Automatic annotation (TrEMBL):
InterPro entries: Rubredoxin_2 (IPR041166), TPR-like_helical_dom_sf (IPR011990). It holds the Pfam family Zn_ribbon_LapB. Residues 346-373 form the LapB rubredoxin metal binding domain. This is Lipopolysaccharide assembly protein B. Keywords: Metal-binding. It comes from Mariprofundus micogutta. Gene3D superfamilies: Tetratricopeptide repeat domain. GO terms for molecular function: metal ion binding.
Length: 379
């Protein structure tokens, strides 16, 4: 049985227990009436165990009809509709619950959270945030609502609001999220750069660096701002610091250096050569040749390869080199270039998802700074 069916079965069992135990808390119902309610639920659980979720859902609807006053039955029914992808029906159930004047106060929080998840699942993020705020009005330290709101703010690139939620989450969990906050500040810095607010970008980048020296995107913003201001000494210090604290992401700076030819030609080339001699890092050489071949010429990339004396040591390195230097008439070169366009270049250490372009936040598990460059290619 898959995870979804197990989850639905668990919900049904909870409702069954609620139906059986409720007479201990309320005035007992006639035994025949209670049997009418429990029988379809038992049949529903049996259908779930038999991997027949549609028939199970029909029985749950019957339970809801027989016990229309039981909010827990409707909560379970809404969960089942959502799990089947019927978001609209789940929303209506949870909205109707909240509209009931007799809904117990203890159920309001659960109903708002369920409705928020409905909207979030359906992609209606503004409505989801509204419902999470309603839940937080009831219980301000609800970690689940805070974390879900944080994810939505990050997904919408609302970095200031995300940072505020992260602060609240730190207080609730009594944990420090310094590295996470550094990445949020780096995104604010990049956003300021895009809006030509260079003073703001400086401020946010500095805050990120104070929290986490290895925050590569913030360091890259600092380097780019120094190059823009023609402060080459500061740029050189930043480049060296990036190499020291974020070596695996260091090759990403080459693309930026090539945009400032006055620095690249006078100092950048020598600095990159020095780093190459120190470690003969294959990723550095390949990223350098790829950037030169893309922004300048294939001939210059070939000259750089000869100058570095680079020799590939793996299938992935061979494919990348062939994609840059191979002749268009060569079928192997054409294949390598096609492969390079869609090759997964980064993998998340937390969940294993692979992506083509660099991302500072994993698109699957939402962790920050967990995507690392791949060094090998599976066959």
């Amino acid at each position: 049985m898959n995870t979804l069916l197990l989850a639905i079965t668990a919900i049904a069992l909870v409702v069954l227990l609620a139906l059986v135990l409720r007479p201990l808390q309320e005035e007992a119902k006639p035994e025949q009436e209670e049997d009418e309610r429990i029988s379809p639920l038992l049949r529903g659980i049996n259908y779930l165990l038999s991997d027949e979720p549609d028939r199970a859902l029909q029985e749950m609807v019957q339970v809801a009809r027989l016990r229309s006053e039981a909010a827990d039955v409707y909560m379970a029914l809404g969960e089942m509709f959502r799990s089947k992808g019927e978001i609209g029906r789940a929303v209506r159930i949870h909205q109707n619950l909240l509209a009931r004047p007799d809904l117990p106060k203890s159920m309001h929080l659960q109903a708002h959270l369920a409705l928020a998840i409905d909207f979030q699942t359906g992609g209606l993020l503004d409505r989801a945030l509204y419902q999470y705020r309603k839940a937080l009005d009831i219980q301000s330290d609800h970690a689940g609502a805070l974390e879900a709101s944080l994810r939505i703010r990050e997904q919408s690139s609302e970095w200031l609001a995300a940072e505020e939620l992260l602060s609240r989450l730190e207080q609730v969990r009594r944990e420090s999220y310094g590295s996470h906050r550094a990445y949020l500040f780096s995104e604010m810095a990049r956003q300021c750069c895009n809006e030509s607010d260079y003073e703001g970008a400086h401020g946010y980048a500095d805050q990120a660096m104070a929290l986490d020296q290895s925050c590569a995107p913030a360091r890259m913003v600092e380097i780019e701002l120094a190059l823009r201001d023609h402060d080459f000494d500061k740029a050189g210090v930043g480049i060296s610091a990036l190499r020291e604290h974020s070596r695996e992401h260091f090759p990403l700076i080459i693309q930026i250096l090539l945009q400032y030819d006055d620095y690249y030609s006078s100092e950048g080339v020598n600095l990159l050569h020095a780093f190459w001699q120190q470690g003969r890092d294959a990723e550095l050489a390949l990223a350098w040749m790829e950037a030169v071949g893309r922004d300048r010429s294939s001939a210059e990339a070939q000259a750089l390869c000869a100058e570095l004396g680079f020799v590939p040591n793996s299938l992935r390195e061979s494919l990348r080199l062939n994609a840059v230097l191979g002749d268009e008439s060569d079928a192997h070169a054409r294949f390598s270039r096609q492969w390079r366009k869609s090759a997964k270049n980064y993998a998340c250490e937390q969940c294993g998802v692979e992506v083509v372009e660099v991302r500072w936040q994993c698109p699957q598990c939402h962790s920050w700074g967990t995507l690392h460059p791949k060094s090998e290619e599976s066959i």
